[in-house]
Write a structure and sequence with these properties.
The chain is of the alpha/beta class and about 375 residues long. The protein contains 15 helices and 15 strands. α1 packs across α6 (about 90-105), α5 packs across α15 and α7 (about 115-125) packs across α8 (about 160-170). The model has no long low-confidence stretch (mean pLDDT about 90).
């Protein structure tokens, strides 16, 4: 069972102390106080946790793991998830991700935590053009323009080095392991749910070519403004991309209120103070029907935890078109167990794979293909 394998993973990780396994680029430097806390955790886990995990009383171990780490609601779901993953690579990654969420970066290194990752991001600094930076009305206040041609992708994009490296070099929304491949291909129709600055839209448009089509769903005005700037810089890809300024939900015509702050925007299904406006939802099934789409080949989502609702509104599309899927599942722990079960219960023949694209807990992607 997964819980037994996780127990072994935790035991094997408890002796670690990775002081440099930290993304200062994203989270800022570790304060002195934080370092002291980490050292305290180190001794706590080594003494108390290891002692408990090694106890012979099996049921005591299970109770301890479930209660201390909040796994009591998710153990059965994680067992199901693990069993459904189609390759060993994905299964080992799931164990690492759960161990990381339990023990943290001091104890567990995720696969990308290596010099190659940081060197890759650093190399992109050399691809910044001399053109003026794009100024924003919100954090991070400005974006540099990258010409990614030398990295193998004929795209110019306003973004940041880490984001550009993740989207275009790591290829966050592709899964490749031996013969197991899930990706957008030439001629595909792609639904890009959560377009943000348009980087993923450009990535998919480059993959699908002029015979494909990429629908980028993004409704935050500040983000759409950046998408438009990025499309202007890529005239050969511009006609492949269509921006849809509706939030995606399980039903259409629901009001969504927002405060427009770019990637840090606030969204609510009920009225909020100082909101900048409201938009109306659309379901994927309604969008496909209203636009008379003859095919849907690939769906990607990164919509801040709204993935379960978007999928419930795409059930007819899933059944009719069986698109390849790249679904972000890191926003809520429940998404790890509920999303794969929902898709599996449709009995459409999907095989599942897992990818992760940071050295911390964010950016876990569930891939699926019939």
């Amino acid at each position: 069972m997964f819980i037994d394998l996780l127990r072994k993973e935790l035991i094997s990780s408890l002796g670690n102390y990775f002081h440099d396994n930290y993304d200062a680029y994203t989270h800022g430097k570790v304060s002195f106080a934080k370092r002291l806390i980490n050292m305290g955790k180190f001794f706590f886990y080594n003494k108390l946790v290891l002692g408990t995990l090694l106890k012979s009383d099996y049921f005591y171990q299970q109770l301890f793991l479930r209660k201390l780490y909040g796994l009591d609601k998710h153990v059965d779901g994680l067992n199901f998830f693990y069993d459904k993953l189609a390759d060993e690579n994905s299964k080992q990654l799931l164990l690492k991700l759960m161990a990381f969420r339990i023990l943290g970066y001091v104890k567990v290194k995720l696969p990308l935590s290596n010099p190659e990752y940081w060197n890759g991001i650093k190399k992109l600094d050399g691809l910044v053009t001399k053109e003026e930076k794009l100024k924003l009305n919100c954090f991070p206040w400005q974006l540099e323009q990258f010409d990614l041609t030398k990295s193998g992708t004929p795209v110019k994009v306003y973004f940041n080095p880490k984001g550009a490296y993740t989207t275009f070099c790591l290829k966050q929304y592709e899964y490749k392991n031996n013969n197991n491949i899930v990706k957008a291909e030439a001629g595909d129709v792609v639904l890009d749910l959560g377009g943000c600055y348009g980087d993923t839209g450009l990535f998919f448009a480059n993959e699908t070519g002029s015979n494909g089509k990429v629908y980028v769903f993004e409704f935050i005005p500040d983000n759409i403004s950046v998408i438009e700037k990025n499309l202007e810089k890529n005239s050969d890809l511009k006609n492949t991309i269509q921006v849809v300024d509706n939030p995606v939900w399980e039903t259409s015509n629901k009001e969504v209120y927002f405060i427009s702050k770019g990637a840090a925007s606030k969204v609510s299904m009920v009225p909020i103070e100082n909101c900048d406006g409201k938009k109306y939802t659309i379901s994927i099934d309604d969008f496909v029907k209203e636009n008379h789409l003859a095919k849907v080949n690939f769906i990607k989502t990164d919509i801040e935890g709204a993935e379960p609702f978007a999928l419930r509104g795409a059930v007819n599309t899933l059944r009719s078109h069986k698109p390849k899927l790249a679904i972000s599942i890191y926003h809520n722990m429940s998404d790890f167990v509920n999303i794969i079960k929902y898709i599996s219960d449709l009995n459409l023949g999907y095989k599942f794979y897992l990818g992760h694209f940071t050295i911390y807990a964010s950016e876990t992607v569930l891939f699926a293909k019939v």
